[in-house]
Amino acid sequence: QVQMVESGGGSVQAGGSLRLSCVVVGYDVSLNCMGWFRQSPGKERAEVASIYWLASSTDYADSVKGRFTISLDIAQSTLYLEMNNLRPEDTGVYYCGSCGFDYSGQGTQVTVSP
């Protein structure tokens, strides 16, 4: 059974930082593309970052490039998202999941105040 559990969300002021974590069980993160997704109020869920360890590749939405960093600890089967210089428009529920969103966690809330 696949389980993905996010943590690390919270409330910060603009310019602040947060680090999200996602522990993955029952799914080989070394073989599959993994991503972080964001659902902001009134908007559709969108991918903000992805990582494919086998291809040594990462990808970012234009809105977060230079501010967010996705990483993967294979040994701990844990996905991370380092978020710096946060903006109010980064507010939303963040989910980790497979790149096709076939599997995902329950989400963690990030709120950025002006």
Give keywords.
52% strand, mainly beta, 114 residues, four-stranded antiparallel β-sheet
What does this structure look like?
A hairpin with a 4-residue loop joins strand 7 (68-73) and strand 8. The radius of gyration is 13 Å and the shape is globular. The strands form 2 sheets. The chain has a 6-stranded mixed sheet with strand order 2-10-9-4-5-6, with no helix packed on it. Strands 1-3-8-7 form a 4-stranded antiparallel sheet, with no helix packed on it. The protein is built from no helices and 10 strands. The protein is an all-beta fold.
Shape: globular
- Percentage of residues in DSSP E strands: over 45%
Elements, N to C (H/E): EEEEEEEEEE
* Total strand segments: 10
Structural class: mainly beta
Number of helices: 0
Question: Helix amount, in percent?
Answer: under 10%
Question: Gap between N and C termini, in Å?
Answer: 40 Å
Average pLDDT over all residues: 96
Major sheet attributes? 6 strands, mixed
Spatial arrangement of strands, main beta sheet = 2-10-9-4-5-6
Output the radius of gyration.
13 Å
Low-confidence regions: none
